[in-house]
Amino acid sequence: MATYGGQRRVPGLRREELALLAGVSASYYSRLEQGQAPNASPEVLDALARALRLDDAERRHLHELAAGGRRRGATRRPVPERVSPVTRQLIAVLGDVPVVVLGRRSDVLAWSTLGHALYAGHLAPDAPDTPRQRPNMARLVFLDTHTRDLYADWPAKARGVVATLRMASGRHPDDPLLAALLGELTVKSPEFATMWADHRVKTGGDAVYEMRHPLVGTMQVTQQTLRTADDQAVVVATTEPGSPSHSAMTLLTHSVITGRNPRRDAPTREMTG
């Protein structure tokens, strides 16, 4: 590993050192930092990613940021996102499995009956049907008490949401609604502002969360994220077969089907004389 002499006031590479490692001039790298070199080649971006030791998600984010700079032009009003018939078929086929479809800004575009019961039973079931009234998962995680209480390790869930939004901002740098959402969360949630300043990124994948559901108690839930061709995320929640979490999810499914509250309708021991 290359070393550079001299004491440093802050950790990390200097601009000139990073340019040297990436094989570009310091002046060119400076223009890249300032957004004045929008035509950086994929090879240059990959060299910078190697010099910075970025992982795959961070490298893709760097390429998306560069592509976004090349695409910039007149800003158009975004068209409301819609769930494709194919995605709705997927929701139907999954049946009694919690499913939520999120748009590019984390708007809830659709959910299965059990997905609604698991994530947002306190909201109207038809809330995603009207674009102006759609719940937003990022707002729920940071600004909604019910959703905050749902996650035993709320900071882990919150960091995942922030990292996913950062990826979206790289893919859609000129989206005014996304920019407005980020501004709103920054103003209303100091925790979001702190996490957003951390600059971490991630891609969709699997994550296991301990969820404390108000109706059926604690469950270990695996959230698997699938990406569609429309840049939407299909989040599928599962539990380990045969586990107490699976039993709790089955109880939640039963409560949805029958309309009964498991805690309210739990049998009580009769007094005998």
Automatic annotation (TrEMBL):
Domain HTH cro/C1-type positions: 12-59
Segments traversing the membrane: none
Source superkingdom: Bacteria
InterPro entries xref list: Cro/C1-type_HTH, Lambda_DNA-bd_dom_sf, MLTR_LBD
UniProt cross-references to CDD domains, sorted A to Z: HTH_XRE
Gene Ontology MF terms: DNA binding
SUPFAM superfamilies, per the entry: lambda repressor-like DNA-binding domains
Gene3D superfamilies: 3.30.450.180, lambda repressor-like DNA-binding domains
Pfam family, one: MLTR_LBD
Protein name: Transcriptional regulator
Organism encoding this protein: Acrocarpospora corrugata
